[in-house]
Amino acid sequence: MNVLKIATAGSVDDGKSTLIGRLLYDTKSLTDDKLEAIEEKSKQRGFDYLDFSLATDGLVAEREQGITIDVAHIYFSTRKKSFIIADTPGHIEYTRNMVTGASTAQASIVLIDARNGVVEQTYRHFFINNLLRIKDVVIAINKMDLVNFSEEKYNIIKGEIEYLASKSEYKNQNLTFIPMSALDGDNVVIPSENMSWYKGETLLHHLERLDAEDISEVSQTRFPVQTVIRPKTQDYHDFRGYAGKIYGGDFEVGDEVSVLPSQTKSTIKSIHFFNEEFAKAKSGSSVTITLDDNVNVSRGDMLVKVAEQPTIAKQLNATICWMDSAPLQASQKYYIKHGVNDAQAKITKLNTIIKTDFSGKIENPSALELNQIGDIQLKLSKPLLVDAYNQNKSNGSFILINPKTNNTVGVGFIR
């Protein structure tokens, strides 16, 4: 069964946790004890309805304040598909959490409170979805019951988002607009009787129809070697395999490959997954590959198709989301973690701060503060095998680590 990874985003009190709770409830994915706990807690709070946000807000502080702080991952299935939903925070101070939750998503749901329309956090979350190149985005216009299910209000919000999309550099995004009431269930799983003017799908029907392969942009094939496998058994004493995960495209037996950085060439002899052998492995597969030739391959090397070479770079231009309370400034030094490789990195220039409402950039700033996004230049202590993020997501992204605290302070996207 296909698994679809989805990120949610939206401003505070737009109803993200309530929407996910409603999805779980209407698809009968809540256990009896969880449902009883929600019913009991809702009564204690004096609600005459079920507070579905209790299904996802796991931290004590979240339940007490009625807000989402941490990224929660929720798993559920229907007869057609399995889903993993990242419920990300809406507060501006938790923007880094939203980036983390959306970084592995194949689709995204951006919630908008129909009463408030497009607000600052809507701009920010829409911008991040574009930055991360998330191809399929649902604009869930929630709380339609509080604006009398107004088609006019829906069309105003839709027009504002379409205008934002026209200003984005990412043009391959599919936008789907769904008016709903997460609390009452309108257009979540069951079509709403209150919005006869809406002729589109419910949220669940749309998500079930998405194919993870169709909404994943195929790019050049990359295979960073995690480890070399040499079994200590008599039957496999000559076996030499290279284990890792395939990113971007597919590999087949017989493909001619280059081993980087040595530029040695060979041909794929076999592809293994546990005790099975396959003629082809798709992007996202964790496999072991053997080669026809006994070439030198080590952890940190990369197998690529001969005609699909990455860039070997010791200097990088990148867009970065800053995640540390101590601001980023030029001349600072960090560790860069890129796939299975790492190196020392120095910020040689902070070029711009990017305004997340698509209104432009601030040139030559002195620092990049927590949750801000900017363009930087880095100099590395050794060359890395990289791609631009818009050409290969996995090989075009990295994290920066503070060498003194060992904290992850930024996530970068190579340009």
TrEMBL record:
GO BP annotations, alphabetical order: sulfur compound metabolic process
SUPFAM superfamilies: EF-Tu/eEF-1alpha/eIF2-gamma C-terminal domain, P-loop containing nucleoside triphosphate hydrolases, Translation proteins
UniProt GO molecular function: ATP binding; GTP binding; GTPase activity; sulfate adenylyltransferase (ATP) activity
All copies of domain Tr-type G, residue ranges: 1-217
Tree of life domain: Bacteria
Keywords (A to Z) from UniProt: ATP-binding, GTP-binding, Nucleotide-binding, Nucleotidyltransferase, Transferase
Gene3D superfamilies: P-loop containing nucleotide triphosphate hydrolases (3.40.50.300), Translation factors (2.40.30.10)
A Pfam family recorded for this sequence: GTP-eEF1A_C
E.C. number(s) listed in UniProt: 2.7.7.4
NCBIfam families: CysN, small_GTP
Protein known as: sulfate adenylyltransferase
